[in-house]
Amino acid sequence: MPWYYVDLFAGGGGASLGFRQAGAVPRLVVDSDHVTLQNWLANACPADPNVVRCLTIGTDALPLPPPTPALHLHSSPPCQSFSTARSATTASEAGEGVRLLRLSLDTALAHGFASWSIENVATRFVLKILDAYRSAFPHRVTYVVLDAADYGAPSSRKRAYAGPPALIAALKEVPMRERTSARVSFANRGLTLPDGAVGLTVSRGRDAAQNRARSLDDVAFTVTASHPLTILDANGKSLGVLTPKHSAALLGLPAEWKMLRNRRAAQRAIGNMVSPVMAKLLMECAVRVDAALPPPIAQTDLDAIDVHAPPPPPPPPPAPPSADAPSTRKRELDDVLDTLDSILQKLRRLVRDI
């Protein structure tokens, strides 16, 4: 019997890719970004475009199919407001992050899905929310924190995965795999690096040498949406940044993956994706778990779970002008280059059409 899936907050399609690699068929794919969904369709071919809906979850009516034993519901609500890498989160943004995470949990439980999963950053407050739901409904909700690098992904991606206890138990039993280095992932794609490259760091500009780095012979740092990883030489000097194709390789996307034309938009889409390696494992575990449809949980019982938004973190101290100026100029230059790249792409299309 074929398995189907619903992918909420689908983004660039990392979760859907893993689910399809495990043999599942999309039943409904939802995101609020039309351009992202078109990119999803470009990589899901052949796929029925009728399964793709451009909706704002929590505002627009969600056309969920009725639960069946062979239908998996997955949600990847935006995690930026929970991210430890982001210090500018406001109280309203934190509250919205809580609302969307709770909405994802409530959707699975209130509709009575037998198979479901949620992926999010493993910060203290996200785990506090998951602990509150697990405490209220121990037979329906649990979670585990796993790093995709332990299962073959070439970059670290430590995330919390929530779902029914039987599914999470099966996920915990999956044996870890040999780690794949950044160097090997690039070589497998035929991707080159500047001469003298030996490592990667999350920092940019002249400050790169002052921050932690990893060898190319290790798994890479987490691929983020905000900016690509910086390439370093043996002296810690920056040799530039990775291209979106390099970032895609580190996430575990296939070589034929079609990316958005704009470099900044492509990096953002890749950095926001669910690890396809972990999504594939999730679906493989879901297929093995024989679960009957549980009764829906009343929304009033779900609303009774008391979780409030965390206070926003204090703003970081301002950096000295001399230290901040190079990285600021680098970001400004990146913005200019992205704009020029977008203009060039439009000119190429105009010339081609003429």
Describe the structure.
There is one protein chain. The termini are far apart. By secondary structure, the protein is α/β, with parallel strands linked by helices. 39% of the residues are buried. The protein has helices spanning 14-21, 34-44, 91-110, 124-136, 165-172, 182-189, 244-251, 263-271, 276-288, 299-303, 321-353, and strands at residues 4-8, 25-31, 52-54, 71-75, 115-121, 142-147, 158-163, 199-201, 214-215, 230-232, 238-241. Strands 3-2-1-4-5-7-6 form a 7-stranded mixed sheet, with helices on both faces. Strands 9-8-10-11 form a 4-stranded antiparallel sheet, with no helix packed on it. Strand 1 (4-8), helix 1 (14-21) and strand 2 form a beta-alpha-beta unit. It is globular. Helix 5 crosses helix 9 (276-288) and helix 7 packs parallel to helix 8 (263-271). The protein has a domain at 4-178 and 269-303: Vaccinia Virus protein VP39 (Rossmann fold, 3-Layer(aba) Sandwich).
CATH architecture tag of the domain at 4-178 and 269-303: 3-Layer(aba) Sandwich
Helix content: 25-40%
- How many DSSP E strands? 11
End-to-end C-alpha gap: 50 Å
Which band does the percent of strand residues land in?
5-15%
Tally of separate helices: 11
What secondary-structure arrangement, pairings included, does this model have?
Layout: E1 4-8, H1 14-21, E2 25-31, H2 34-44, E3 52-54, E4 71-75, H3 91-110, E5 115-121, H4 124-136, E6 142-147, E7 158-163, H5 165-172, H6 182-189, E8 199-201, E9 214-215, E10 230-232, E11 238-241, H7 244-251, H8 263-271, H9 276-288, H10 299-303, H11 321-353
Parallel strand pairs: 1-2, 1-4, 2-3, 4-5
Antiparallel strand pairs: 5-7, 6-7, 8-9, 8-10, 10-11
Helix pairs in contact: 1-9, 5-9, 7-8
